[in-house]
User: Fold these one by one.
Assistant:
Number 1:
Amino acid sequence: MGLDYSIEIFVKEAKLIDALHWLSEKLYDYDEPKFLQWENENVKIGGHDFKNDKNIFKDSYIHLDNGISFTASLIFDIDPVIINSLSRHYPYCFDAETFKDDFENYYLGNGKIRIGGFDTKIVKYKEDEVYHINFTAVTTAMSSMLVESLFVKNWIEELSEASEAIVSYIDMESCGHKLLFYKGKKIDMIISDPYDIPQDETAVFFNEYFKLIKNH
């Protein structure tokens, strides 16, 4: 089985609108744009196959309510790691003869590239006034890209700052969590076993993080 790493971001409900506005410019529009209805606003969002537990949404306007899931391509600044992930994700493309045409399917100009699709969820976190934003890679190549690309890291940090995220990290499955943002600050550390809470000052400082993942 391949790797299914994911970007995990927890934001306060009051700041979700800021996260949605930021994502409206960072998710690729496959076709006719969709609009998420939240706090009397209609926020454009890129993606397809929007649904929740009860409905598959075919209209352009989608009520967010307690949560939705969809498929999304994320827009990153381009770097060699991201290009390499494309060639690994599509091994029969990106050869010497077809590279230009294949690359232009993903390159958006101005140094931007789309990568996907990510299995995406925006859901209310249990009873707390917190929303959980999740982007799960669907291949090993995409998973490796999440932890190796500097511009993916920048993408996560920028979204975290825009939404004043409680915590943001990359879930690396059995390899633990790579924390990138916590309580308003950028960090870069790996917690190898996030479910084994240390009995020291680490547990005190990261108490909100441990609380969120414990009930996740």
Number 2:
Amino acid sequence: MRTPRHAALLAAAVMLAACEGNPSPPPPSPPAPTTQPSSPLVGKDLDLPPPDVQPGYRVLVSKGPVRGPASLGDVRLNKGITWVNVNCVADSGTRTITLDIETVGTFTLECTDRGIGNNVNQLDLAEGRSGRFRVTTTQDVRWAADIQVPE
């Protein structure tokens, strides 16, 4: 005579035999993450901010970000401290950029594709001067430049 208890034991034995005779495959493991070597940002991918304004100074003239050569116009610089600044980045390799203020001075700097170059140049003029502010470089250089004078 079968009782509900016998039926339950029989069902359990059938399930146990089924599990032991037919082991199910383990669940698939998640795929291994694929990592591509991350390449550093190169010049053409970088945002180019303007130069930082020095404390106690104001921007007299500025331009950028632009590519290649440009004139920022005529400037009148007073006696004392003046800052000539440029941030630049080359699309590839290393390039030069020249900042020229007629009658005052010329700065030639390097721009690379490995990061933004922040160049700060201080002038201490014994007397006021005027001149045209020009930037000379190739089309594969982006730059932002300014001249800062005391407030």
Number 3:
Amino acid sequence: MGDFLNHASQGVRDGFDYNGGGYSVGTDRRIMPHAILGLGFGDLYGKMRGRSFAGDIDQQTRIGMLYGGWYRNLNKNNAVRVNVNSSLQLNARWRTYAGYEFEGRNKATAHRFNAGVSYAY
């Protein structure tokens, strides 16, 4: 999942090689004419190795997500969208995240407001 690059060593700065992968699965369902609710799960993993020095880093992250969205055309030119999401992530420690997004859109412009909060323990 995603693109990662490798970096050559330059002088005393160590380069690295990264190999990783992962998966995510999810499902959502229309709960009202203009609203959906969804649930997802993912597992990401990888290994970074130093090129010039002894340095290996293993990485694994599991994440669960709950999300919802509401979209409504107000008229021929204007629409409103609201998204909410929450996730629980486990890597070296637990992290929780919750956020929301509000977007007002017309044919010419879109105005978007995003906010979120994160807590690690």
